[in-house]
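Q: Got a minute? One more chain.
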Amino acid sequence: MEKMRENNEIFQIRYNKRKQLKELGFPLYPNNLKPSDTAARVLSSYGNKTHEELEGLTSQHSIAGRVMIVRSFGKSAFILIQDRSGRLQAYIQKGKIDEREFAAFQLVDAGDIVWVEGTPFKTKTGELTLRASKFSILNKTLNDLPEKWHGLKDIEIRYRRRYVDLIVNEQVKETFIKRAVIIDAIRTFFKSLEFREVETPLLPPIAGGAAAKPFKTYHNALNMPLYLRIAPELYLKRLVVGGMERVFEINRNFRNEGVSTKHNPEFTMLEFYCAYADYEDLIKLTEDLFVFVVKQLGMDGTIAFNNQSISLVPPFKRLGFYEALSMYTGISVENINSKEQLLQYADANSLKVDKKSGVADLQIELFDRIVEEKLIQPTFITDFPVDVSPLARRNDKQPDKVDRFELYISGIEIANAFSELNDPIDQEERFKKQIQTAEEELKEMDEDYINALETGLPPTAGEGIGIDRLVMLLTGSPSIRDVILFPLLKKLE
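A: Always. Here it is, folded:
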């Protein structure tokens, strides 16, 4: 790092200015100057006033923020200051501020953090501006802001230096502001339905709740292995057993799997559980949730995503799992459970599959690779095979299927829900069957969860919604990395 700084001409220039600022007698990192206003408040108060109305104004307003542009004319200059609310221009003129302060101003570069106090006025071009009467540098920054940030071709630089990305790219900041609005809206929606927000363990002793490879760690004091949770499901259903009939959690989950535009090893999920409800109730609730969140964002029912026009106006389409698989593979519904037919289809389409897999696993793999990307408009896929749904309740009329749905939008799985399996004997048998083919980390049965079911889980429905993917959809972001502030990236060599 030190050698890089020595070879960085801009860093050295700024570092020398930092020394000059100190020689002028100014503290390098003062913490005693507080802004009285924000850029947005000043603009709101005076933006619509004419030049004449502002003449003779004596009220003083101070703002603090980062200098984005410096236009110097020698004895005067315009600077554009950006704070959390927006941008406001300030006018610095020699003789109008303290002589030492003007000398300090001469050391200002784009990217520095400053404090300005002054009186609002309108320039000849009609731009509201603060005429500075006081000025101070709060942080003489040492790194330059990129001049052509938007033109960078290596998008990973934006992800690695998100702090710079947020400074210079307003659209990026708006995406994360919208993310916060979406999460606030979700909380408001569920609280209005008498759901209680809860927190469950992040470091469980057993990796359960989903079929995914976990991250493993170790607790020295207790001398036991722990896992970063892959899902909070089993803990949340324990709470329903305990009488908390409506619960939700906005949680961080971790899965030691691949990275793609739709996958990050660390991600945010909403999970909620409702006693005395079934998966049909959750279909309606999910549609209502989408309507509420879209309204809170000030959007209408149609969004643009991946160059597609998506309608989020309920009711959403429904399609059975086998029906969808047959529709998009061409395998007849009569033959959709034939392993031979599934393998023939895979071979004919050059799809590598594990020929030792069971029928349900082959069906899921073909669904993921063939059907998923074709589900553009919001579609609930229902009636999944029981063998790939170990926590879902069997359908009363077709016990080889479960009462479950997944919601797909623009080829992305957004939600997974089902009527919960609350038969402890059936659950234990399914756990044992799942363990036979599971990876080593998933071979331990959660016997306490079985005990909880034996204590009595009321009829319950539960759902998980990927927050990151939902934000992608509602902000038009093509990659999950665009909606995670600090996505996981491979270390630079």
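A: The longest helix spans residues 170-192.
Q: Perfect, thanks.
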